[in-house]
Specification:
Purple Acid Phosphatase, chain A, domain 2, about 30% helix, six-stranded mixed β-sheet, about 20% strand, alpha/beta
Length: about 400
């Protein structure tokens, strides 16, 4: 049996204020062509269909069109909710859609209700597990408030179902699994200071189609074959070396898995360069980046006048400009600038600050307080994603464009 595994479409997202909807539309067209030409038995979408809980209208229309076209082609689709999606909104009309072969699963109660396909070798059960927020579901599962415990409990329900329903088994899930390599564009999902769960939670199935991490990769540590498909487009400059793809998975009669990574269309390459302004404008070695979305770090001793306009004369798609002079002396302002540019973990920033002002590493109890404060701030911030469409708020600070006067980059 053959599947096309994809995830993390993030429809409606921008790239440093560059609208990506046309690139996302091109990806959807390409995806449907691939599903038809490769004669897949189902398409698996492992969460983060949208970039925010209340997506823009054009993103909703694109997702609706994609599912309608796959259904019209006679290709079943299994979709789970990710941490960026609103489970309620994504799951609207799911019972009706199921009649057309579009299986959208967003509820904990559905994890042991598989989508079952059959071929000449027997049944294959697809178990969709949406993103499980420990704060929301740990009580219903009767476990501690951790990602590891809630995911293991959900998989225990899957394993219990398999006792009476033998056959090959695939899980579609959205989670951060221990050993996975993250990038800057995934939203932090830490609870209790921990954001990951062990791969061994998935023991007992044949293949796990994961979403959440944006780099395509295999995760070891389970009896199952576990893969992240990665996002179809790059969404931050930390993904400059990613090769975006979808995964075509074949499962034989015995549950053995083979796969092929199929590169997705690239709307524009990413580039990260640094140097003095005059060198960037004249050095022929930088010509390769003239059509790239570009992150530029200027190293001039003094801030050049109007560098963004000068850079865009050669590199019209510069989206981030950072100023970091070579050999800058040690100072409070320099330290703050470096911390803002390099540190993406608020808890780590707090740890470094306490170590500086107290003259030693903070205690375990102090670190717990920092983790709790960060967690509470992130949960309060989720209200931003439910603003009405008339309010324009980017879904991440990484979508803020930097002017020529900015001193720190965005990651």
């Amino acid at each position: 049996m053959r599947f096309l595994h994809t995830s993390d479409w993030h429809l409606g997202r921008t790239f440093h204020r560059v609208d990506l909807i046309e690139a996302q539309r091109d990806f959807v067209d390409w995806l449907i062509d691939q599903a038809v030409v490769r004669e897949v038995d189902a398409v698996l979408v492992a969460g983060d269909v949208f970039d925010r809980a209340v997506p823009p209208v054009d993103a909703v229309n694109l997702a609706s069109s994609a599912l309608e076209r796959l259904a019209a082609a006679g290709i079943p689709v299994v979709v789970t909710a990710g941490n960026h999606d609103s489970a309620t909104r994504l799951g609207f009309g799911s019972q009706l859609a199921q009649a057309a072969g579009v299986h959208v699963r967003t509820r904990l109660d559905d994890v042991d209700r598989p989508v079952t396909l059959s071929d000449e070798h027997g049944d294959l059960h697809i178990y969709p597990i949406p993103y499980l927020d420990p704060d929301v579901v740990h009580g219903a599962l009767g476990v501690d408030r951790t990602h590891a415990d809630v995911l293991t409990a959900a998989m225990d329900r899957v394993r219990a179902h398999r006792v009476k329903n033998p056959g090959r088994a695939v899980v579609v899930a959205h989670a951060f699994i221990t050993g996975g390599q993250a990038s800057d564009s995934e939203r932090d999902i830490r609870v209790g200071g921990v954001h990951d769960a062990p791969a061994s939670a998935f023991d007992g199935v044949d293949y796990v189609a994961l979403g959440h991490l944006h780099g395509a990769q295999v995760v070891n540590g389970s009896t199952a074959t576990i893969r992240y498909s990665g996002s179809p487009l790059a969404y931050s400059f930390s993904e400059v070396h990613h090769r975006t793809s979808v995964t075509v998975v074949d499962i034989d009669a015995d549950g053995a898995v083979s796969f092929e990574l199929v590169p997705t269309p690239v709307p524009r390459r990413l580039g990260v360069v640094s140097g003095r302004l005059d060198d960037l404008l004249t050095d022929p070695n930088f010509a390769v980046h003239e059509d790239s979305w570009l992150h530029v770090t200027l190293t001039d001793d003094r801030r050049p006048e109007a560098p963004l306009a000068a850079l865009r004369a050669r590199f019209p798609h510069v989206v981030v400009v950072e100023f970091r002079p070579e050999g800058a002396g040690v100072s409070v302002s320099a330290d703050i600038a470096r911390m803002r540019a390099a540190a993406s973990d608020p808890v780590e920033v707090g740890r470094a600050f306490l170590a500086y002002v107290c003259g030693g590493e903070p205690s375990i109890e102090e670190m717990k307080v920092l983790a709790l404060a960060d967690e509470m701030a992130r949960h309060d911030g989720e209200q931003l994603y439910a603003l009405p469409e008339s309010v324009s708020v980017d879904s991440r600070t990484s979508d803020l464009d930097l002017s020529a006067d900015s001193t720190a980059g965005v990651g």
